[in-house]
Structure formats: C-alpha cells, structure tokens
Amino acid sequence: MNNYTYTIIDIADLDNVNFSEVHETSAETIRKSINGTKFVMEYSETPSFVTDGTITPLATLNHSEALELMATEDWTSSDPLA
Fold it and tell me: What is the rounded distance in angstroms from the CA atom of residue 19 to the CA atom of residue 74?
C-alpha cells in the first residue's frame, strides 16, 4: 500500500500548484472531476503551497479513500464513449 496523500483542490487554484512538489508533472497530467471543477494531487510530503495557505484543499485523503472517490460518478464517467 502506498503512503501518498491525495488532496482534492478547486480548479481555480491550478495556477498556484508548483508541480515540482507533487507527483503529477503538469496541468495536463492531473485527474479532473467529470464537471471540471476539481482536481486531485498526489504527494509524499506536503507541498509548500498547501502549508503556506496558498491553496486550501477541499479534502485530504489516503490511498483507499482516493480510490473510493475516483470510482464515484463525480470522477468516473459511466459513458463508455467518454
């Protein structure tokens, strides 16, 4: 099991992410919610943009919680053509 932390963040905060501090490499590699209003970030150590309050996560999850959330209709389309 991994020990990463996952945070759900409002898409409006995307420009404040320092990708050198998280596992995703760019805005193109993030996982967005179906409606495009949120995204998820994964990291081992809490990034400075979270600790300094630049970004306030909407939720902080462990691996199993993140998997559960990603399986919901808010994050995974039921449309096989999507």
Answer: 24
Please give the order of strands across the beta sheet that includes 31-32: 31-32, 38-43, 5-10, 59-61
What are the pLDDT digits (tens) for 69-81? Answer: 999 999 998 877 6
CA angle 50, 71, 30 (to 5 degrees): 40
The domain segmentation of the chain, as residue ranges, is 5-70
Confidence of residue 19 (pLDDT cuts 50, 70, 90): very high
- Let me know: does 32 contact 39? Beta carbons within 8 Å: yes
Query: Measured in whole angstroms, how far is the alpha carbon of residue 76 from the centre of its chain?
Result: 14
3-state class (DSSP) for residue 63 = helix
The DSSP 8-state label assigned to residue 24 in this structure reads -
